[in-house]
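Hi R.,

Here are the chain sequences for the assembly we discussed:
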Amino acid sequence: MTASLQITATAPDPAILDLPWHIPLEDWPAENLAALPRGISRHVVRFVKLSGRVIAVKEIGESVAYREYELLRALSRIGVPSVEPVGVITGRQDPNGERLEAVLVTEHLQFSLPYRALFSQSLQPDTTSRLIDALTVLLVRLHLAGFYWGDVSLSNTLFRRDAGAFAAYLVDAETGDLHQRLSDGQRSYDLEIARVNIIGELMDLEAGDLLESGVDTIAVGSRLVERYAELWDTLTGPESFGAGDRWRVAARIERLNDLGFDVGELDITTDVDGTTVRIQPKVVDAGHHARRLMRLTGLDVQENQARRMLNDLDAYRAATDRQGEDEEFIAHDWLTTVFEPALRSVPRELRGKLQPAQIFHEMLDHRWFISREQNRDVPMAEVAGSYVQNVLRHRPDEAQVLEADTAALPRVTD
Amino acid sequence: MATVTFDKATRIYPGTERPAVESLDLHVEDGEFLVLVGPSGCGKSTSLRMLAGLEDVDSGRVLIGDRDVTDVQPKDRDIAMVFQNYALYPHMTVADNMGFALKIAGVPKADIRKRVEETAKMLDLQEYLDRRPKALSGGQRQRVAMGRAIVRSPQVFLMDEPLSNLDAKLRVQTRSQIASLTRRLGVTTVYVTHDQTEAMTMGDRIAVLKDGVLQQVGDPRDLYDAPVNVFVAGFIGSPAMNIGSFRVVDDGAQLANTSIPLDRGVLSKITAEDRGRITIGFRPESLNIVSQADEGAIPIKVVLIEELGADALAYGELDLEGEAKKEISSGAGEGEIIVRVDPRNVPRKGDTVWVSIRAGELHCFSASTGERLNP
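And here is the predicted structure of the full complex:
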């Protein structure tokens, strides 16, 4: 049976050959599965155990599978947040020699949360807007890269905690298309699809009594459109000012940095007599803070987490009175005396609850909280212990929250 | 009137030389189901996207009805891309699932209910309106998804290879569902596929594209019986037409010892560029089994027989010496001919059968331009 299997993958794990490819995916035995999917989904999807990790397996047509695989690879190369593709498997046959559908295999994104899971936990106020903001950033980044999504929705997205916000990751590229550059028509249509889909998904949560009260679903959809327009304009829009106001160039770059973007290329033109200056960012790269932190500490974390940690690094520098010193040395000391010891105090069995950078972020929050309570500056060592005992222990595990993409139309079975 | 017009519409991707769509002139009638078909890269999807507003139009225009929509945003064109969004919301009723786009648009509740009910009636979903999607069968859920596009009453439906991610059995089933539904609705539909069988079975008219250029537009019968060039001849019809290049000797197309008689009208159209050659095409069903002595008899050495029940196909090679054998090609490949034979009287592998082309079923094309020569 396996003789005719064809596996296209960049780094195939031999263990993948041991999975029961000769059985239709929906009949796979429980011992191979990490979880059963929830919700109605268009294709058969399963979360499968492989070599101590979890992969997502989706049964779809062969050409569609290859296409999506290539798109996910391209997105990964470009650096857009998306699920990592593992491979495409074709040539499947059941024991009678009947052809079985091809599959696309992707890595399960650790510590990712499907939106329904976020809504079913005890709710933070404002979850909805924070998710929308995360999705806005993702959509802008995709569009900057020339990627037209075609089916933007909360169900096609996974979210990761990113300090006090969320970071969104693309899960389904089936309807996507990569172009050199997107036209305004393409961007606006993608945005309109997003707006309609998201309102629908929120209305659905509402119909199921799962939505935080007081949410105006249509206003949320409009918020997406507004935030997108703002962000897009800040990142790509032209700006003109008098030649005497050249500080505006630095201000624009700073604004972009604050939003988490670096300017790769800035177009500056003056008019004929040099009285008016016009600037327009041509290339922008996300991850301004993440890159800086990586450079200083080697840590690979998400944008807002990085921002928080850089702030703590600055505070550490001030507290230890080392303003004149080289950044690199201070960063190294912060790492070895603050960050790493804090994380080491988390017992092994609790490490599956949150990503390390997220734990650190919550410890910083906890420090602020108990310092106020006790009216003193509680040192990090104590904070860590208190956090583990009083907060982390009671949190659910988020390393593997598994749910199939619940974007809708089921595989037709009759 | 929801007609669709491409008026010399052109799209050239930046950095490329050859247009993806070159000066497309195409008019779709109100209520017509028009299929855009062609091999990968022919420009069919690009054309559809130009109509949707998802692709810039570099020159020329696109019109919906009398309205020039060339620079109009997609959501303001009153079109619906069907099957693009499959989302069925599990907690909402079928009625709410179908109508929520109208709700978002602020359409009054009473109007929504009315339009949803009309649409549900058309889709045989009336009794399910207050149920949840989970209670529906797969086929019914698919119809709810279609209903969502229909209920918006767009002027035009656009469908871009909607069956491509379905397995073969489902493809045939869904194909007929789409065809009968759009017929009932009478909404102008532009449908893209690379599959010529799909095109032939679904379209009122078919537009064949190649390399960005429209080759021919007509109803399925026109395209089948009178393809305007070699490309269309070989693309439309399954199994594909047998096509070969022959020398013109006296009044016939010469193939070793066989001469296929050619019409005076055809002969007069042969030009110097053709260098004394002509391209001949004939479909597998256009061949009669004859004897060696008959005029225009072609010898075929049978290599394979395919029994299809009501039909049988014989795959063979021209039974000639040397290079002349390879002059012909068909759906089976270079040097092969496909002949439809009587299933009760099937030749054996290794036999040589003599076939001749039935009168009036010979297609003649210029050897240099590929254009059709006979009327």
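DSSP finds eleven helices and 14 strands in chain A. The two ends of chain A are 27 Å apart (CA to CA).

Let me know if anything looks off.

Best,
T.
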